[in-house]
Amino acid sequence: MQVFGSIIWVLFSVMIIVGGVVGCFTPLEVVASLAFLLPIFLCVGGVADILYYFRVREFAGARALLFSGIFNLLLAIIFFSMGVESTSATIVYFVAFLAMFRGMLAFVYAFDLRQLHTGAFWVVLLLGVLNIAVAMIFIAFPAIGGITIGIMVSLFIVLFGIASLLGWWSARTLFRP
């Protein structure tokens, strides 16, 4: 089960990165499909975070993982109940909020990693700051066009995938038999 969990984590991260890169080349399709797929992604990510929490609950940063999972599930329920039309109308602000939230989580998690004396501290910290910067851009310029939104969302997805891979890299010893 430990190896399986590690494989799932890496595959999920790589799929997120590939999806983000593809989205950079098809930004209009990203915006159109995001309104439909967003609650599904949030639900799957939330369940995965909660399951991983139970595996690593005694380690530093585990509570942030549980909080992230519960938060993602709550957002998924909200967006499922709103429908596609309302979701697409609020997508810019949602993406800004999600980027800000993920950035703050990465910022806190980076300092947990620092206690473990791992080199991933600086990279996770930088990714957290980048997520916060993306959020501020979305809030300051809510009228950004669909193409820009698609590209920025795709880049955010790539950053999230990279952060997930770095999380796996830092925690990979937990999955060794």
From TrEMBL:
Top-level taxon = Bacteria
List where the protein spans the membrane. 7-28, 34-52, 64-84, 90-111, 120-141, 147-169
Q: Which GO terms describe its cellular component?
A: plasma membrane
InterPro entries on file? Acid_resist_chaperone_HdeD (IPR052712), DUF308_memb (IPR005325)
Pfam families documented for this protein: DUF308
Keywords (A to Z) from UniProt: Membrane, Transmembrane, Transmembrane helix
Instruction: Supply the PANTHER family for this chain.
Output: PROTEIN HDED
Identify this protein by name.
Answer: Acid-resistance membrane protein
